[in-house]
């Protein structure tokens, strides 16, 4: 397919987006303020790398979700816009300090730290989360910090350590830094995990949330599902029930939006009414905080005081 025909196909696909998925990008001046601070420090945000549909709104509010450990992921999830590769760049030793400076300049009261998967690192980046948390707290001690980590599965440790042992050790490293919330996304229902999340496993992700609660029951846990890969409502409800049984406190439900023609096509656009219905079901299951809507993402409005204060 030629470049021109590819662009034409992509424009046609964008033109078919339902009205509820269209939104203004935001004021250029407000967007550029955040982008300037990020680019000057050569750090990354998932807002840009993942082409989040809410980045205009979040930038206008001077908020951002920082993407640690570079822009290249060692996994190859079929839904994600972030670049993939088996040989990402070495860690920037100044990144924790740079992120802390950006948090201070933006005046963030609530900051979200996520990362690419770094299966190439001995601890898969667990200690890097801690280093960044500590750097932020040193410069902005009042800022609440949420983490959104990978599953920390794989790699090699001592001869007597199993992959499960390593996962628990890495999760514990982050939990012991006492984040305001620990997020790990399930992303999709059980049946579609292999197609959507290459390299990840359904139970393995539930185990992350279980581990957090086992290590420190006081830390709120959160997870998210993207709808639109071909799941049924019954499968979504089953996944929500599994998350609830794993001790998950907070839930986000949003619409998958295809980043490019090289990514998985959208099987269905769920309506706002369907999201509302799922949100009610989730609240009735006992989730303390639920955000359910087409444009909801895992870090969307993550720091609103009414949300996290109500649970603590």
Account of the 3D structure:
The protein has 312 residues and is α/β, with parallel strands linked by helices. The chain has one domain (24-311): Aldolase class I (TIM Barrel, Alpha-Beta Barrel). It has 12 helices and 10 strands. The protein has helices spanning 3-15, 28-40, 46-49, 55-60, 95-106, 126-139, 163-175, 193-196, 202-215, 233-245, 272-285, 305-311, and strands at residues 44-45, 65-68, 72-73, 83-84, 110-115, 144-148, 181-183, 221-227, 250-255, 289-292. Strands 1-2-5-6-7-8-9-10 form an 8-stranded mixed beta sheet. A two-stranded parallel ribbon has the order 3-4. The radius of gyration is 19 Å and the shape is globular. The model is unreliable at 305-312 (pLDDT under 50).
């Amino acid at each position: 397919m030629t470049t021109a025909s590819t662009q034409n196909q992509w424009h046609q696909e964008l033109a078919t987006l339902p009205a509820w998925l269209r939104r203004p990008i935001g004021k250029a001046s407000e967007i550029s303020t955040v982008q300037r601070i990020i680019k000057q420090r050569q750090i990354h945000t998932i807002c840009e790398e993942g082409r989040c549909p809410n980045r205009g709104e979040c930038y206008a509010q001077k908020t951002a979700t920082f993407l640690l450990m570079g822009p290249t992921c060692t996994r190859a999830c079929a839904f994600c816009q972030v670049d993939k590769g088996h040989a990402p760049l070495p860690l920037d030793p100044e990144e924790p300090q740079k992120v802390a400076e950006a948090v201070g300049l933006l005046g963030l009261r609530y900051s979200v730290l996520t990362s690419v998967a770094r299966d190439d690192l001995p601890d898969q980046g667990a200690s890097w989360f801690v280093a960044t948390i500590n750097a932020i707290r040193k410069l902005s001690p009042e800022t609440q910090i949420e983490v959104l980590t990978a599953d920390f599965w794989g790699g090699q440790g001592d001869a007597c350590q199993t992959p499960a042992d390593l996962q628990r050790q890495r999760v514990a490293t982050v939990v012991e830094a006492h984040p305001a919330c620990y997020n790990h996304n399930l992303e999709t229902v059980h049946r579609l995990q292999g197609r959507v999340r290459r390299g990840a496993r359904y139970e393995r992700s539930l185990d992350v949330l279980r581990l957090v609660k086992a290590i420190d029951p006081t830390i709120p846990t959160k997870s998210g599902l993207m709808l639109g890969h071909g799941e049924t409502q019954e499968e979504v409800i089953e996944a929500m029930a599994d998350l609830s049984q794993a001790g998950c406190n907070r839930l986000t439900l949003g619409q998958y939006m295809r980043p490019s023609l090289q990514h998985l096509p959208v099987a269905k656009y769920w309506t706002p009414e369907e999201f509302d219905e799922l949100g009610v079901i989730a609240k009735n299951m006992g989730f303390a905080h639920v955000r359910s809507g087409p444009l909801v993402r895992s870090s969307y409005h993550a720091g609103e005081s009414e949300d996290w204060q109500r649970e603590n």
